[in-house]
Amino acid sequence: MALRSSVRFEAEDIWDTPEDGNRYEVIDGELYVTPPPVIPHQYASNVLQVLLGHHILQHNLGHLYSAPTGVILTEGSAGVQPDLVYVSRENLGILTHRGIEGTPDLVVEILSPGTQNRDRGIKLRAYAAARVPHYWMVDVRSRALEAYHLGEQGYDLIGTYRTGAIFQPELFPGLEISIDRLWALLALAAVGDALGPGVPGATLGEVAEQPALGPLDLALG
Q1: Do the domain assignments include residue 4?
Q2: Any alpha helices (H) in the chain, and if so which ranges?
Q3: Whose CB among 37, 75, 105, 143 lies 3.0–4.6 Å from 41's, allowing a Cys bridge?
């Protein structure tokens, strides 16, 4: 939700907002406030963080952060808090004590009914304007992962990955994400109505140890 005001906000204002559990972002001078995400959203973010984080750490590629992490995009065009944000080892100079100040290598947004229009609209354009090379959107309800790569005219859709697909991110050579396994992990983590009622609960640690799905490096194949 954008808060209408005669005041034009600055990107750095995200670090002067209340610590009330809401997510505050500034795009094109407007302040957007998002309430705390629901459980399905958080499990999707957590599972992807486990899968990507393991590969990134194993190969010493850089750093992966989850919300709430403040990101001031290049030239102060926007202050955002992506669900996941990756900074490569070659790009670590944009890390500061308070957050990320510059252009990260990858941004991931988990779509929610209340934010998907923003993620597909004004935030997508803000990331493209800041020249973020890679942008992924994960739709828990439709069980799809959309991968975009920055081109000359903005983002080009590389692919929409659904059940049965294997996602091999250009950004992470050697990494393979089975979409079936991704949603199986979410089901094991009991994300609730978005994946169907009556699914037994499990912690992310228990999910990672599921013998049918392999060890923690299950994302590699």
Answers
A1: no
A2: 39-58, 116-120, 122-129, 179-188, 204-208
A3: 37
Residue 25 has what DSSP assignment? E
Domain count, the chain: 1
- How many other C-beta atoms are found inside a 10 Å radius of the C-beta of residue 212? 8
Q: Is residue 2 part of a domain?
A: no
The token pair that represents 107 in the structure block = 């941004």
Residue 14: inside a domain, yes or no?
no
pTM flag (> 0.85): no
- Residue 54 domain flag: yes
Q: What radius of gyration do the chain's Cα atoms show?
A: 17
Q: Tell me which residue has tokens 């750093």.
A: 63
- Find the range with the poorest average confidence among 109-113, 127-131, 165-169, 184-188: 184-188
> Is 26:33 a contact under the CB 8 Å cutoff?
no
